[in-house]
Amino acid sequence: MLGSDYAQAFEMGYSATRRFLLSRGAPVEEAEEIAQAAWARGWEYREQLRDPGLVSYWVNSIARNLFRARFRAPIQTEIEDTNAVYTLDLDAIEVLRLLDRCSQRDRALLEQSLEGYSAEEIALSEGITPTGIRVRLLRIRNSLRGQLNLSLTAGAEVS
């Protein structure tokens, strides 16, 4: 079947396919979607059509099969209990908040320390002495402690 013949058949047969699906109980939006999909699939396989005069019947059978396939799909059910309980790891959230207050360099040092790397291991990657790493980590922790104390006292004054 030529493309122009199929296009002409589509113009005349699309609404009939849609009505056919509606008569089978398909909702309006679904009937339009299935009819369009059936005509698109017919276009893909139009060389298999033996009698071009039966194109509408052929596409309607494709549409019927697509509509039936909808019933073979797994059933989707809604969740009954929408009051799900979530647990939050408050310690992890607090650590992330603390890390957000640091510069990138300080954050990288703290993350390595929290991951369990020793001062010696961190010193090798940073090119600083282990004592320098320990001092730097101490200063970072003291700075964070000071920031936390300021925010806690500011929060207490607001309340």
Characterise this structure.
- With 159 residues, this protein is mainly alpha-helical.
- Helix content is 72%, strand content 0%.
- The protein has helices at residues 3-23, 28-44, 55-72, 90-100, 104-114, 119-126, 130-158.
- It is elongated and about 90 Å long.
Spell out the blueprint of helices and strands:
Blueprint: H1 3-23, H2 28-44, H3 55-72, H4 90-100, H5 104-114, H6 119-126, H7 130-158
**What's the gyration radius in Å?**
34 Å
Indicate the mean pLDDT: 84
| Overall number of strands | 0
Helix/strand structural class: mainly alpha
Q: How would you sum up the major sheet?
A: none
The amount of helix comes to: over 70%
Q: Sum up the overall morphology in one term.
A: elongated
- Terminal Cα separation, in Å? 80 Å
**Strand proportion:** under 5%
Helix-strand topology string: HHHHHHH
Discrete helix count: 7
Q: Report the uncertain regions.
A: none
